[in-house]
Each structure stands twice: as structure tokens, then as C-alpha cells.
Design brief:
Elements lengths: L6 E5 L12 H12 L4 E4 L11 H15 L5 E4 L5 H12 L5 E5 L8 H14 L4 E5 L1 H4 L5 H7 L5 E6 L4 H11 L6 E4 L5 H7 L3 E4 L6 H12 L3 H21 L4 H9 L15 H11 L5
Parallel strand pairs: 1-2, 1-8, 2-3, 3-4, 4-5, 5-6, 6-7, 7-8
GO molecular function: 4-hydroxy-tetrahydrodipicolinate synthase activity
Pfam families: DHDPS (PF00701)
InterPro entries: Aldolase_TIM, DapA-like, Schiff_base-form_aldolases_AS
């Protein structure tokens, strides 16, 4: 891994043009926008709409992000697929682009035992030439990584951490407890509501979807904490917590995040799945995001 994964990585959206195709120029603009505030890049994740991208598009998205970041901030790419075979196949293509690490979601749709998840991650980590983060998001996959499973997998030399997006403090603290005493194994916080608390408890980084909308505000949670201003970090968290709660109540992210960005003047297009916004929704989004406009 060429860059340490610390601080804020934005779970960056994948911009589409008016024909619904990947928009590389707009992708570059979003990477630049995040780098202005010192945020790293996490691409092809949930907010990047990996579930509606084909393999070639995922490669193109990653290649664009890596090229635009040019080594100035870390770039982590999600490569998880339903099958171990396809995860490895995509992971090798992505690794060749120069990412700092990859993230692998638990297989979805198919219910798996913990022993099967262990076998899956070991095979992936054995096959890939870049460090691997596990990615736990049970609400979307139906499969949950247990802390004991994570502790077993942490012994693999190419598995360097876990991104937890289960959405609860109990889940995050369970992984932090499991990681205690394991060198070179990091816990990355997924929920935007727990960024500050995650840093207090020992998370090395957060992966933030809300940083698409409020890159500076999210970065302040980390920068103040890192500078020793724990109270200032907590206050920065409070600033974005209400935004998160109200914005995400309107519609599923990333659709609502992309709509917010468009209303903020960012050229990212619309999502590829059928979520609609009323005029009332749009007015509420404008009001919520106005304080965070660049």
C-alpha cells in the first residue's frame, strides 16, 4: 500500500452524462473538489453505484480517479462481486491501475455461513496483489461479518482492515474490539453519523458518502480531531448530523446525494435506478444543502 489510509475518504459518486453514460470529465472535477479539502477517494462503492456499473465502467471510473489523484491522496476501489471468481477477476484489473487498496463487500443475494465468508476472503486476498479491506454492509447484502470472523481473517497478511457500514455503534465497536492488538489492521467507519465517535474509539479513517455534499465540513471532523481539538471535532460532527438525518430521509443514497449535488451546481447527472423527486423534495434539498455549497 503506497499511501496510509487515514482521515476522510469520500465514497465518491459516479457522474453520468445526459445519455446516462459514465462522464470522465465530471469525475475528474469531483476528485479535484474532494482533494481541495484533503479528502481521499473511495470509488465504485455504494455511493458510486457499483450495483449498476458493469466491469468495464468500474475500471474506467477507477482509472480516472487514480489518474486525477496522481498520488496526492489515497484511492481505494471497491471490487466486490457475488462470486469469488468475478471478484478476483475484477480485482486484478483494478489493481493494475495503481490503487492503494481495494475493498471487497460480502457476497450478496446468496446467504453464506461465516466459514464460507472466511474461505471467500482468503481466496480473494491470496489472489490479489494489492491490500484488501473487507466491507460489511448487511442491510444491502444479507450477509454479516461477525467480529470473530474478522479477527480470524485479520491474520491474513494481505487483509489490512474492514469497512463497517452496518450503521450501528454496536457493530463498529465490535470490530474495533476485535482489531485490538492486531498490528497493521484498521477499522474504517462507514456511517456518517459515527465519524467523530469512530475516530475517538480508534478508527483510522471514515468512508463518507455525505462528503460528496459537504466535503469541507466532513474533513473538519478529522482535521480537528487529528489536531487534538476533540470538542471541535464533535461540533463539526453535529453540524453534519442533522443534514445527514434529514437528507437521507428523503430518498435512498446515492440518488439523493446526486440530486443534492446537481442542485448545488455540480454536473454529476442522475442515478440509473427509478427514484423520483418531487418539487417539494427538491426545495427541501436546496434548503438543507445551501450552507454547504462550495
Amino acid at each position: 500500500m503506497s499511501k496510509p489510509i487515514k482521515g476522510v475518504l469520500t465514497a465518491i459518486v459516479t457522474p453520468f452524462d445526459h445519455q446516462g453514460e459514465f462522464h470522465p470529465a465530471a469525475m475528474r472535477q469531483q476528485v479535484q473538489r474532494q482533494m481541495r479539502y484533503g479528502n481521499g477517494i473511495f470509488c465504485n462503492g455504494t455511493n458510486g453505484e457499483f450495483f449498476v456499473l458493469n466491469a468495464d465502467e468500474k475500471v474506467a471510473v477507477t482509472e480516472t480517479c487514480v489518474d486525477e489523484a496522481a498520488g496526492r491522496v489515497p484511492v481505494v476501489a471497491h471490487v466486490g462481486e457475488i462470486s469469488t471468481r468475478e471478484t478476483i477477476k475484477l480485482g486484478k484489473r483494478i489493481a493494475a491501475l495503481g490503487v492503494d487498496a481495494v475493498s471487497v463487500i460480502t457476497p450478496y443475494f446468496v446467504p453464506l455461513k461465516q466459514s464460507e465468508l472466511i474461505a471467500h476472503y482468503r481466496e480473494v486476498a491470496d489472489a490479489l496483489p494489492v491490500p484488501v479491506f473487507m466491507y460489511n454492509i448487511p442491510a444491502r447484502t444479507g450477509n454479516t461479518l461477525q467480529p470473530e470472523t474478522v479477527r480470524i481473517l485479520a491474520d491474513h497478511p494481505n487483509i489490512i482492515g474492514i469497512k463497517d457500514s452496518a450503521g450501528s455503534y454496536e457493530s463498529l465497536s465490535g470490530f474495533l474490539q476485535a482489531a485490538k492488538g492486531i498490528p497493521n489492521f484498521d477499522v474504517l467507519n462507514g456511517p456518517d453519523s459515527l465519524i467523530h465517535q469512530g475516530f475517538v474509539d480508534g478508527c483510522s479513517a471514515c468512508i463518507s458518502g455525505l462528503a460528496n455534499v459537504a466535503p469541507q465540513a466532513i474533513s473538519q471532523i478529522w482535521h480537528r480531531f487529528h489536531a487534538g481539538d476533540v470538542e471541535g471535532s464533535r461540533q463539526a460532527q453535529e453540524q453534519v448530523s442533522e443534514l445527514r438525518k434529514t437528507l437521507y430521509a428523503i430518498a435512498f443514497s446515492p440518488a439523493v446525494v446526486k440530486k443534492a449535488l446537481v442542485l448545488m451546481g455540480q454536473d454529476v447527472g442522475v442515478s440509473r435506478y427509478p427514484i423520483q423527486f418531487s418539487a417539494q423534495d427538491e426545495e427541501a434539498i436546496r434548503s438543507l444543502t445551501q450552507p454547504f455549497t462550495d
